[in-house]
Design goal:
Number of strands: 4
Largest sheet: 2 strands, antiparallel
Structural class: mainly alpha
Order of helices and strands: HHHHHHHEEHHHHHHHEEHHHHH
Length: about 575
């Protein structure tokens, strides 16, 4: 580890914390439906959308109607994307003459981008036409991110409102987030990327002469526009197979730093937005403090493991940290930080190959996702996932003080606790169940490149990434098969919507409750004790649930590496 590496981590953390309030204030304006300076430009567009669709943005919905509209919208988008991918060969903007995708790959990819996962069982530059990249995939990067933020707004209203049956209007929430946040920021972001050297063109290839005087054909396309929203919306799907390790997606140290910041920016701002929504910004800062403690601990462990390197190579006289699978222009510190950021959020973009990390260095990204990706988390999904843990934490705290638990003025009763447990339990049920199945079936065992505990880690990582809607992978696994494409698609759908629906039910239940003022017997939910309890609940649930599987995978891999055995 170096001073330069720690300075990078410190600078990233400091700028991120400085962004929390201004981003949160903008999100709060959208949450309330207030006018912003961008309404001058996008206001007429917004009103036109409502007119064409026959929607009254002022007509609010109960949680059931909100959920039905959200599910139908995403199902239709998924079917549209499936059709585009299957019919790619006969659609325009396919200069390379690429064939349509297979049934199982189209199924997997359509679900992947609908659920904000962006798992990629394909190489983008040699599989997808420009039309498929833009209309089939990039559009999901906007709308899946907007869906997540809309769901967070609905849950915020559940905590903030009193004795009402409505939690907002899904169409209004999603339209405002897209027009006044994701779209304008992505435009500015894309211009910055273009100025930094990222391609943005409808051409598909360019011929260049190498330093050796040879001719080489390089793939290009509308990269910058996809890159901007893939990071901002914590989507992660790369235009190129090597994702943000590719110089056309991530050319410089500055673009790498901005990409990491953009992954966390909205998720961080949503914590402050929550505090404003419930009338107490200290609640938001407490949540952010718990998130940052988990993030910094994970970063320290990953950076330490990668900087220490492989002891097997040390015994052979090869000193230094683990640079396998990493870009020289980024190095160990920036690669380790990126790996933790992208898995703490549900992004999945990578600037290094996680399969080539040391066993402990790869364990932290895996564990980040197994916690439900609530350490900042995906846009919207991170904060509403974290609030599910907060409901359980305040329930435990209520048992400690011997009274009905309360959180931000709402009594947490049996219904809310059961729904929170249902949403949280869906993740380990799918992750561990499908990993176990794939570890014994021949179709599952055909996927991993490596044997032993590292091969098991590749399977575990794949299903963890899918259920957590992350999309990154231990790249050693071959996933483009009917078996893996099918099961991973189901895992992504369950990981997204089997959490969202109970969360909306909680929002509806809380919105109907009266406000309960703080009393002498209330458990404080803004101080250090509360932050510690939150962190403890998250780690205990994650540790107790996933420790056996981690012991079979990365922990066993690490112990084997110490003894000189590699897989």
């Amino acid at each position: 580890m170096t001073i330069q590496g720690w300075f990078l981590i410190l600078a990233f953390t400091s700028i991120l914390l400085a962004l929390a309030k201004p981003v949160g204030l903008w999100l709060f304006a959208l949450y309330e439906g207030r006018r912003t300076p961008l309404h001058i430009v996008f206001g007429p567009v917004e009103r036109s959308f409502y007119t064409l669709a026959g929607i009254d943005p002022g007509q609010e919905q109960g949680w059931r109607r909100y959920a039905v509209h959200m599910l139908l919208f995403n199902a239709v988008l998924m079917l549209l994307t499936y059709a585009i991918l299957r019919l790619q060969a006969v659609l325009p903007l396919n200069q390379q003459g690429l064939a349509g995708l297979s049934e199982h790959l189209s199924f997997n990819t359509a679900i992947s981008f609908t659920t904000n996962t962006n798992w990629q069982s394909y190489a983008g530059e040699s599989t997808m036409s420009n039309l498929a990249q833009m209309l089939g995939l990039t559009i999901h990067n906007f709308l899946s991110a907007a869906t997540g933020i809309a769901l967070a707004f609905a849950l915020f209203r559940g905590f903030a409102r009193r004795e009402t049956k409505t939690v907002g209007n899904f169409w209004a929430d999603m339209t405002r987030v897209t027009l006044y946040l994701l779209l304008p920021v992505s435009i500015v972001y894309a211009i910055f990327l273009i100025a930094s050297g990222v391609p943005q063109t409808l051409a598909t290839t360019v011929d260049v002469t190498t330093l050796e005087g040879l001719r080489q054909t390089l793939a290009i396309g509308p990269v910058a526009s996809q890159e901007a929203i893939k990071m901002l919306g914590t989507n992660g799907g790369g235009f190129f197979n090597t994702n943000s390790a590719h110089p056309f997606e991530n050319p410089t140290a500055l673009t790498n730093f901005i990409q990491m910041l953009s992954i966390f920016a909205i998720g961080t701002g949503l914590t402050y937005c929550f505090g404003r929504a419930v009338g107490n910004t200290r609640q938001g800062w407490a949540i952010l403090s718990a998130m940052m403690l988990l993030f910094l601990a994970g970063t320290a462990v990953t950076y330490g493991a990668e900087a220490a390197g492989n002891p097997v190579l040390h015994h052979l006289g090869v000193a230094g940290g683990n640079m396998e699978g990493k870009e020289v222009r980024f190095g160990i510190a920036a690669s380790s930080l990126f790996a933790v950021v992208t898995t703490a959020a549900s992004c999945g973009a990578v600037n290094a190959m996680h399969d080539s990390f040391t066993a402990i260095g790869g364990l932290i990204p895996l564990f980040n996702m197994q916690l439900g990706e609530v350490v900042i988390g995906g846009v919207g999904a991170g904060i509403y996932g974290f609030l599910l843990f907060a409901i359980l934490a305040v329930f435990v705290a209520g048992l400690m003080v011997g009274r009905t638990p309360e959180y931000v003025g709402k009594k947490i009763e049996a219904r809310e606790v059961k729904l929170a447990v249902l949403a949280i339990a869906a993740l380990p049920l799918m992750i561990l169940g499908l990993t176990a199945l794939s570890s014994v079936l021949q179709q599952g065992l055909a996927g991993p490149l490596n044997k032993g505990p590292h091969g098991f880690s590749e399977i575990l990582y794949a299903f963890t990434s899918a259920v957590a809607n992350n999309g990154s992978a231990f790249a050693g696994i071959t996933a483009n098969t009917p078996y893996y494409d099918g099961l991973l698609g189901v895992a992504m759908w369950v990981g997204r919507f089997f959490v969202i629906v109970p969360t909306l039910a909680i929002a509806g239940s809380l919105a109907a409750k009266k406000h309960t003022p703080v009393s002498a017997g209330s458990f404080p939910t803004t101080g250090g004790l509360w932050v510690g309890l939150l962190v403890g609940i998250i780690l205990i649930l994650g540790g107790l649930t996933f420790l056996p599987s981690l012991a079979l995978g990365p922990i066993a891999d690490h112990l084997s590496m110490i003894r000189g055995q590699l897989f």
